[in-house]
Amino acid sequence: xxxxxxxxxxxxxxxxxxxxxxxxxxxxxxxxxxxxxxxxxxxxxxxxxxxxxxxxxxxxxxxxxxxxxxxxxxxxxxxxxxxxxxxxxxxxxxxxxxxxxxxxxxxxxxxxxxxxxxxxxxxxxxxxxxxxxxxxxxxxxxxxxxxxxxxxxxxxxxxxxxxxxxxxxxxxxxxxxxxxxxxxxxxxxxxxxxxxxxxxxxxxxxxxxxxxxxxxxxxxxxxxxxxxxxxxxxxxxxxxxxxxxxxxxxxxxxxxxxxxxxxxxxxx
Length: 268
Hints:
This protein has 268 residues and is of the alpha+beta class. It has 3 domains: 33-144, no CATH class; 174-209, no CATH class; 211-264, no CATH class. 29% of the residues lie in helices and 12% in strands.
């Protein structure tokens, strides 16, 4: 089987293997578990295009990688990053190639720095010039045990990595409304691991009529004695007194601290 062929029968076989492993039954190999887990992504940003300058250098225009062409993208294991790189700003791409036998030998470029690296599916960690990437087998196993934030276990509690059985949808309760810009369209790039920080792809537009501090946090703070807040937060009496009375609004980090305390106590 080939994960990139038009034949998608491997998907049903992968799910059957998940069930059979859970029941301690033998599974049927898919045939590509040892290949690097590769995705296809389009060149839709100047940042991605600039990172390919080294690959385009010296080539005629018709042979260059151009905007809206496709690239290959791989996924680095947790400890597979080269030393001294920032995992949040490291993502490898390569020229589009359908032949799986060529994937390990392609010139892989970090789209952030433009530096070139090799990839491997062996070992447990990367080196200065080589990144240890996930295989399809490893990616499928991770998916098999990933936690489903939208699902509940048979008892109605949030499901976890070891939850087994028929899952149900969790009940949704609106906590607050936040307006965000069209930049959220790039969330698909986060799912593809091209962008690692959700904060970098959307902008929040606060509504003064829906201020969480005034509507939720401050009323909850007033229900707790200052002495209890001092013990839980480690903050000064004067700051907490001014915050509870609404005379001043704490700094952003202190707002988050007080909100986290209230959530742990089940008051938010």
